[in-house]
Amino acid sequence: MRDAIDPRLEDAEGSPFPEQTDPTQRVEQNRDLAFEGGAFGLGETLIAAPSGAAMRTDVWRRFRRNKLAMLGLAVIVLLVLAALFAPLIARYDPYQLSSELRKPPSSEHWFGTDTVGRDLFARLVYGARVSLSVGISAALIATVVGVIMGALAGFYGGWIDAVIMRVTDILLAFPYIVLAIAIISVIGRGQSTVILVLGLLGWLAIARVLRSSFLQIKQMEYIEAARATGASNMRIMFRHMLPNAIQPVIVYSTLFVGAAVLSEAALSFLGIGIQEPTPAWGLMVNQGRKFLTSAPHLLIFPGAAIFLMVLAFLFVGDGLRDALDPKLK
Amino acid sequence: MTARPLPKFTDDVLLSVQHLSTEFRTDDGVVPAVDDVTFDIRRGEVFAVVGESGSGKSVTAMSILGLVPSPPGQITGGQIMWKGHDLVQASPAEMRAIRGKEIAMIFQDPMSALNPVHTIGEQIGEVTRIHEGLRKGAARTRAIDVLSMVGIPQPERRVDDYPHEFSGGMRQRAMIAMAIACEPDLLIADEPTTALDVTVQAQVLDVLLEIKDRINSAIMLITHDLGVVAGTADRVMVMYAGTSVEFGTVDELFYHSRHPYTLGLLASLPRLDDDSRTRLVPIPGQPPSLLRRPPGCPFHPRCAYAQTPSPCATDAPVMRLVDHLDHRSSCHFAEQLVARPEHSR
Prior knowledge:
By secondary structure, chain A is mainly α. Helix content of chain A is 67%, strand content 0%. Chain B has an eight-stranded mixed sheet, sandwiched between helices. In chain B, strands 2-1-4-5 form a four-stranded antiparallel sheet.
């Protein structure tokens, strides 16, 4: 007797319309979908405030519940404040030499002095500027390039996709230190070179992440609907698809800031990154390694600073991923 | 028989599709999704396209809008005449200018056809911003106007809601609002009520019909639901396996059908006014794969009227006039079929 009063063709035997489910079931599914908020980060906002703020508040609420992420955020805020107000915090000029070489921490020099007598605390505080600006600038470049490349590849497909993906394959297969050395030997050493190198290597993963999101979202009916309104390709890509695809990119970019700080330290440690006398943490580790036994503070403090900053960004990135994905409770 | 009022449509042909063929080239071979389909839509009418899934009705709509995904899809023949221009030949920019402005589309599933990250108002307003260059504020005002036209309560407040804050029926109304924001001449509605509760279906159809008269457009209604067709359409085209098999006014098709497939559909339709205990008569078998479409008449393997030896299995039938007005059928034996849709078999 199934649904005999519903005057539909599908109720004939053998259901000639296999794709059609019972309409009431469909509505049920829709309701479930709405409840879950799908992968759109809307989460439990079904009954929430009537504005775009709802989504952001919700993400923030879930983020706040994550203690490690909040700790990471606190560390980042502290480091940013330190970098911004470095002259107010440090009592010494980070470039000022003195005759007090490799002195251990004291009330005079909280973190001791380095091999040429500069105050280590001042250099660490000013070094936060270097690390943060390198990390964030590199992440910005990587994100912008990665988003454009990933969007083009995922949206257009075909030969554009093939070319972009092969380029990323080639660059990913290159040992990045070798590539960095190659680029640096061409355009010279310095902070902007480091930013450029890291940014140009970092977009690869972002492009791949965005491309795969785009491939998925391209199939969505609301993209076809946008086309049916006469929207141009650019509008569809950046107004309709990108906001739906950007979340994994945000997470990755945050994680990448940490990775870039670490890579900057590595490049500086190798002597091909930031140059003396700029107070870069990696450079300071390099100088300290020779005095590991006699003056361990030269290694410990900059090492700990790198560790702290990288870990903070990783925690925040992980927290963001969980907060943006309502399916992970 | 019933005394349905005469169709309100005029002779003003809005869209004329001539011998349209659309193919998909897949790894398994060429799929003729639409094969030599001819019809026209007149200003003010509701033109229904009926058929099972895979019969080519959605691809027909996509071909009109120039939205057939290419590759693998391609319009391989025919003309789509719109206001004196052939849309098959139109450039992408020309098609963009027509889409949403002159021909708008209403999608089947309002849950997935609205972008979850933009407010309802932004999505409705976007159409006007693209085509009329409206500023943000003006677009929002227009969005409120059309939302109230489709019967959304408190449109000033709901305009800033996100799709997930709307119920299914309201979302479909919002989709309609989006489609009518620029007062298009033709609305293509692809199964506009299939995803909705039965109780909401009628409301949404009413809104659609009312709007159609208000903005003096035509509706191409794609559906598999003969109940919807009976209640709303003026003329009907029945599609089967990528071809059109019968064509005529609703009355002609429901009461004087000249094609076995249409008769089969009607016989499998339960009727509330039928108190006899007759069982529903399903059409035996499954619709054919378009990759291996039967030779001759594509419906002949399932057809109760097919005769052997006969042209059914060998000759492709020709769509031809079988009755007064423009009732056309592509059955070899259309002239012999005297329809008794009341569960006659």
